[in-house]
Each structure stands twice: as structure tokens, then as C-alpha cells.
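Quick one, C-alpha cells below. Sequence please?
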């Protein structure tokens, strides 16, 4: 009995290894096409080839890290894990440093503050609810959907189609939303309200508090 189970396991293992070996040819073909397309873009414009390489590298990092905003909000509730939640908080903190440096440099030089400061109103609440419900049902946000489409998930391919369709409808009705809520809603830039030092202190203080709460949530003692 033990010998038959061992032989069965060895056959399954050999079959899985054979399947993996059979995929090497496809991987080499895809790699050749990627390189060829990069060379083609480089012949048109070097900037296009650089963007192609950056996109590939960014996609690789997303796939290996399993980075997804949906999972960062869903996992603490479903599994109790907050690793992705903390990763998102760290990413926002890093982005805050970069954007603050760029904007403060423009401020000191007397230039207009770069970046689009979006108005906050009822449209923000409606959009957040719709997107929040949709991304949980679909199982992925924009980055997570693209990453899983690259992995071959059929469901996320359907999600991507409707993601694009919804974005097109949103762009088509954007003028109506401007008249309905956006034009009458305030655009808040914290440094203008609190000053640069206090604004950064509040921003990093909130992020630090959220990080601490996420850590506590994952490692709390559940009785």
C-alpha cells in the first residue's frame, strides 16, 4: 500500500515537472516578443522603450508582491492579515515625501503648485461606495485586475472589460458630475489651511496611527 502511494506520488510529481518543462518554450517565445517589441519601440523613440521597460518592471513587482488595494481593505476583515494594508500606508507615506518635495520647491520658487487638487463632495462619497463595492465583488482594484489578467485569470479579464466600459461612461458623464457636485465642492490643500509643517505633521501622524492600528489588529490576542 505504501509502495503504491509512493509510486503514485512520484508519477504525479514527474507529470507536474514535465508540465513545467513544457512551459519553458512559451516563456522563451514571450521573452523574445517582449524584447523585439522593445527594440521596435526604441527605433521609434527611446522614451517609448524606456516606458515599456518601466511598465514591465512595475508589472513584475506588482505580481511578485501581490500588491492590491482591494486586498489591503478586505484581508483585515476576512483573514485578519494587514500586511498589504501596511504596505499601502507605507506607499502613501513615500508618495507624500516625493509630492511634498516637488510642491514645496514650486512654492518656494513662487510658481503654481503642481498637481490637480480635487474637490471633495457628495460625488466623492458616491464614487467611493460604488468603487468599493465593485472592487470587492470583482476581486481586484485597477492594479490587482491588470496583474491577474497577466496571470490568465478569466474572471478578471471580464472585470477589465467592464472596468474600461465604466471608465468610459464616467468620462462621458463627467460634465454632469461637475455641474451636480464638483463645481460647488471645496478643493482643500492642507498646506494652505494649516501651513506646510503642520500639514506634513498631520499627514504623517494619521498614517502612523493607521499603521499602528493595522499592526495591532493583526497581532491582537483573540479570545
Amino acid at each position: 500500500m505504501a509502495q503504491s502511494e509512493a509510486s503514485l506520488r512520484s508519477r504525479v510529481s514527474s507529470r507536474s515537472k514535465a508540465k513545467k518543462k513544457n512551459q519553458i518554450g512559451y516563456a522563451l517565445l514571450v521573452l523574445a516578443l517582449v524584447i523585439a517589441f522593445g527594440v521596435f519601440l526604441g527605433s521609434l523613440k527611446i522614451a517609448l522603450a524606456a516606458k515599456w521597460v518601466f511598465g514591465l518592471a512595475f508589472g513584475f513587482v506588482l505580481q511578485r508582491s501581490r500588491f492590491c488595494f482591494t486586498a489591503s481593505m478586505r484581508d483585515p476583515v476576512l483573514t485578519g492579515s494587514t500586511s498589504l494594508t501596511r504596505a499601502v500606508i507605507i506607499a502613501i507615506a513615500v508618495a507624500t515625501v516625493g509630492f511634498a518635495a516637488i510642491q514645496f520647491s514650486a512654492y518656494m520658487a513662487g510658481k503654481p503648485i503642481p498637481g490637480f487638487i480635487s474637490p471633495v463632495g457628495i460625488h466623492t462619497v458616491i464614487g467611493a461606495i460604488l468603487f468599493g463595492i465593485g472592487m470587492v465583488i470583482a476581486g481586484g482594484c485597477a492594479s490587482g485586475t491588470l496583474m491577474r489578467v497577466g496571470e490568465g485569470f478569466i474572471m478578471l479579464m471580464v472585470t477589465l472589460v467592464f472596468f474600461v466600459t465604466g471608465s468610459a461612461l464616467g468620462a462621458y458623464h463627467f460634465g454632469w458630475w461637475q455641474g451636480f457636485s464638483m463645481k460647488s465642492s471645496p478643493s482643500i490643500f492642507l498646506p494652505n489651511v494649516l501651513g506646510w509643517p503642520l500639514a506634513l505633521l498631520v499627514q504623517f501622524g494619521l498614517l502612523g496611527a493607521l499603521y499602528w492600528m493595522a499592526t495591532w489588529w493583526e497581532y491582537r490576542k483573540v479570545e
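The chain has ten helices and no strands. Residues 70 and 140 are 6 Å apart (CA to CA).
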